[in-house]
Amino acid sequence: QLQLVESGGGLVQPGGSLRLSCAASGFTLDYYAIGWFRQAPGKEREGVSCISSSGGTTTYADSVKGRFTISRDNAKNTVYLQMNSLKPEDTAVYYCARARRRCVLRKIEYDVWGQGTQVTVSS
User: Fold this and answer.
1) DSSP state at residue 104
2) Which of 37, 19, 6 is nearest to 99 (CA)?
3) Which residues have C-beta within 8 Å of that of residue 66, sequence separation ≥ 6?
4) Alpha carbons 90 and 97: distance in angstroms, whole number
5) Of 9, 41, 112, 113, which is least packed with CB atoms within 10 Å of its CB?
6) What are phi and psi of 107, to 5 degrees?
7) 79 forms bridges with which residues in the sheet?
8) Band (28; pLDDT cuts 50, 70, 90)
């Protein structure tokens, strides 16, 4: 069974940090680009960041550049999203997903999705 499981979400104050993890099972992560998306209440799901299968290429949405860092540990079959300097507008459910081909921030390019983890930034 192909599965992605996110973890690491929670409640954090503005300016704080969280690290999200995306663990894969049922397939070998090495061969795939992986993306992180988020969806706030009443809004469309939007791309946040993605990383190529080798880790050599990363892409970030303008809204998170300089604050978020994506990385991967293929030996652990896991991708991470380090989120620093968090803002209230970062509040959303965060999803990781497996790309069909390459690292792009378009939902249609992803075929396996996790169940999401809630991130809430509030004082």
Assistant:
1) -
2) 37
3) none
4) 18
5) 41
6) -55, -35
7) 22, 72
8) confident
Tens digits of residue pLDDT in 88-115:
999 999 999 999 999 999 999 999 999 9
Phi, psi (deg, nearest 5) at residue 75: -65, -30
3 state DSSP class of 109: helix
Give me the mean pLDDT over the 63-71 stretch.
Answer: 98
Q: How far is CA 5 from the centre of its chain?
A: 11
Checking DSSP bridges between strand 3-7 and strand 10-12, what pairing results, if any?
Answer: unpaired
> Whole-angstrom Cα distance, residue 38 to residue 44?
9
Strand segments (E) across the chain:
3-7, 10-12, 18-25, 34-39, 46-51, 58-60, 68-73, 78-83, 92-99, 110-113, 117-121
- Name the band, by pLDDT with cuts 50, 70 and 90, for residue 7: very high
Strand, coil or helix: what is 103? Answer: coil
Residue 13 pLDDT level (bands cut at 50, 70, 90): very high
Q: How confident is the model at residue 42 (pLDDT cuts 50, 70, 90)?
A: very high
